[in-house]
Amino acid sequence: MPAAVSEWSNLILRWIHVLAGIFWIGQTYYFTKLEGRMALDEEAARKSRRLPQVWLVHSGSFSLVERQASPKSVPAKFYWFRWEALITWISGFLLLGLLYYSGGLMLDDSVSNIGMGAGVAIGLRLLRKARKASYGWS
To answer: Distance between CA atoms of 14 and 72, rounded to whole angstroms?
Structure first.
């Protein structure tokens, strides 16, 4: 790959990864905060036999958010949340391939003399083990 193409790909993928990650983390923070506020209303909701709810104020508008046990349709927020997570993951994986697997940053001849194929296989295997460990899978 020509150096200019590699550099531009690196720059574009990094920005996509950072922006998608910021959006994803922001949505995660929003939903975590919302869930925490819902938990504060659970006791009162149980006593009055209603679902927990939270009032939100944003840009002068007031919104009433209510927990649903089984929603009839998935709100648009969840649709974007899924895509933010997917774009963050895919752009990160492409960056990994661009920088380490094809960019030559993964192998160091002064440390070990293994081939690129073996290095990629070891790296992907370690990623799989780390993912399994983070989810508690065996």
So the answer is: 37
